[in-house]
Amino acid sequence: MKIQRKGQGAPVSSSKSSPTHPSQSTLNSIPNPAKPPSTILWALESLILRSINSPSRRFLEDYWEGVDLEGLSNRGVSEIEPRLPPEVEHLIFTLAFDASDHKANTTLILVARRVHKWIYPLMYRILDEVSEPPTPDFTQPGCPTVEQIGSFAHHLVVGRIHDTTEEVHHLLQHCQNLKTLACWYGINMKPLLSNLNAMVDLRVLSADLDKLTEDDMSSPTLLRLTHIEVISANEDLLKYLPSFIQKSQVTHLRLYALQFWDAKLIENILQSCPQLQALTITKQYEETFSSEYLENTSKLLQNMYKTDIRLVVLDSSMCTADDWILGIKGFHDCWSYSDQIVTARSKKYLQDGDYQNKPFTSRFDWRGHLTEEGKAWYAQEERNERVYCKAS
Asked: Angle at which helices 291-305 and 263-272 pack, to 10 degrees?
């Protein structure tokens, strides 16, 4: 059975206000000459000062105080000598890199050979081979091959476009430095176990594992996982999941498109696996479904929520390619959203109410269900930008 995932949304951007450096107002008042290559360094200065260690921060502060700002506008580009240490310059260009702006990054790598060396691997850290068009699109002329850039990849989402075992095997064979991997649209993982066993850094996996035996699940790579999403888990898999989790480093389990809603099996997983911090189940839920379906779902969820505070039920529409990419890029995703719900339940921030009657969605009205103490906690989450925001 092939489980469909919704496609990729628009790139997500995040902007933060930054304090103005004492010299910034002076910089803004300078006439606009032919700007030297170091302009990008000036624009990112306040961000860098918050990111680097104290010795380097003091160096930069001393550097800006020593710049002849009035004379700078009258000097040619060739007269300006870079004075930043290489490690600071490296940090600046790394922070300037935008994973969602391939065109800007293509320009950035032309600044200097050393910048090309720093930025080029970052351009292929995320391989999205599910969305239309894929990124990168290996079928396009001029696109580097997976043999050339596969070693740079840390995150791979594959399915639909590469839907044969041979194609996926070829990708995985050249992407052995992966940290996160999603294999969707019914990809059979059994013949790919040898590829997984070569990935010593893999920690997050989303895949259909129903063809794996209990012995297969003892793979060293699978035992090193911390987050695992099992797609369309069958009854046999649910029975031996507890023994797998007990032997593994898994702290977060998500069951997507669960075929068997057996409360006893779910309760067994939670009771047998104290190291689990969150067990997330997805369920399709729409107001247009029959009243009988909605009523049965409500009763089922209320009973299941009573078993353990680590249980979270999300609407399956949330766990998409969009969400996977959000998490990879450092945004709040369904994994962290589940953690947030577990925290709210464990600290009794959520009032008893209808939140238990249906799955959580990205539109959940937190303030309408929180205690006063919970509202203060949620306000802090907002200040820390840990509020779930869906790509649009």
From this structure: 20
Q: How far is CA 83 from CA 44, 299, 305, 314, 325, in A?
A: 16, 67, 59, 52, 37
Strand partners, 180: 155, 204
C-alpha to C-alpha distance for 101 and 78, rounded to whole angstroms: 30
85-124: pLDDT as tens digits: 878 888 888 888 877 777 787 878 888 888 888 888 888 8
The pTM assigned to this predicted structure is: 0.74
- How many residues are given for the chain? 392
Q: How far is CA 370 from the centre of its chain?
A: 27
* Structure token digits, residue 152: 């740079």
Contact 340, 304 (CB under 8 A): no
User: Closest by alpha carbon to 280, among 337, 363, 320, 346?
Assistant: 337
- Helix, strand or coil, per DSSP, at residue 315: strand
H or E stretch at 180: strand 180-183
Kindly tell me if the per-residue pLDDT of 76 is higher than 70. Answer: no
Lowest mean pLDDT among 14-23, 93-102, 196-205, 216-225: 14-23
* 380/386 Cα distance (integer angstroms): 9
Domain range annotation of the chain: 83-124
